[in-house]
Amino acid sequence: MGFIVTSCAMRDVYYEITVDAPAGWYSTLSAPRIAGPPRAETIWPKAPPLPPMPRTKPSRPRETVCLADIAAKVKLSKSGVSRALRNDPTIPLVTCRRVQATARKLGFVLDRPLAQALQLVRSTRKERIFGTIGFIDAWPLSSGIRSASNVYLKRIKNGADERARELGYRLEVFSLMEPGMSAQRVQGILEARGIQGLLIAPLPPDVHELPIEWERFTCVALTHSLQNPGLHRVLPHQYQAASLALHQLQQSGYRRVGFVTTSELDLRVNHLFRAAYLSYQYMLLPEDRLPVLMAHGPLEDTFDEWLKRSAPDAILGCVPGIVELMTKRGLGDFKRVGFVGLGIRPDTGVGAKAAYVDQNTTQVARVGVDQVVAQVERRERGVPLVANVVMIEGTWVPGTTLRDVARK
Predict the structure, then answer these.
(1) Residue 306's CB: how many other CB atoms inside 10 A?
(2) Omega before 229 cis (within 30°)?
(3) Taking the C-alpha atoms of 360, 362, 365 and 370 in order, what is their torsion angle to the nearest 10 degrees?
(4) pTM of this prediction?
(5) 50-78: pLDDT as tens digits
(6) Of 101, 117, 299, 335, whose CB has the highest number of CB atoms within 10 Å?
């Protein structure tokens, strides 16, 4: 039974009430003798002490799979397991796959931020270099990367070199046409120098395969001309580039647009320039549809006859030297026949001011390096089951070889 004890002060009169209470209760109250309103207090018995909390055994944290667990399963050292998980070239491919399969079965998860931090710590150089990317040049020495005439290849190499340095990698050119170079020697040099990633540059005519053991490397091709194997690729969007050029010609008022190419170049771009042109032809009136000039030899051998028979008012071309050829045929003022180029515009000469679609080869090379580095860091090597293709769109560059016919 509870007890309430109150003390009251009313009109300067002090009242004190004492109530007998069982043991354990506070029974006497007093209040200062001051005037004020009535005040009441409630006093409750002391609460018994709480029983002690039972001591429970702390739960064991979930164990993570480490290299030692995998090493015990596959009967290898921890360093060997680490290299096998990274597809290190010093470890046989069969062993790498066996170790990786065991790691997946055990639930091993790579801590990528930690791995990258350790890689950074291991680097003691002022200029931190994480690795070297091989730039494969299969052109003859007279027309390859060391030649001043191959502007396309030089721009790709410069763009790749710039991006590699930004990401902490070094780009090294490997020419397959050096004297004494063989398939075995190429493979030995790449492995001896610890090359993990390869960037395959556009190949010369009639070259569609390379003597490389692809399963040892991370590879990205910058060309359609490497037909075997099917690697990841970064390419100019040639269909979009040709469509953009045809759209600009149509907007300028040209109706009879002819397309000039070579059989070798048509194969190198996987027929995409021609595909865009033929698709455009289906939207025209029958009288404005022109045949494609597909040169199988020197362009001069077939250009004059095609020009007379087709009578185009503009030419879409991707053949080097076509602007100079038009100038020789008296079309250098481009008033009677306009011109738009696809590919690389020369830095000097008549073609330096031509209208064209820039295929952004520098960006193609930069994205190619991005793809190689990403795959190296993911430890992906060999020929992929499904190849990814990244296409870089072209941009329009106006020039003096095109005039606005529509305004006339």
Answers:
(1) 20
(2) yes
(3) -100
(4) 0.69
(5) 666 666 555 444 567 888 888 888 888 88
(6) 299
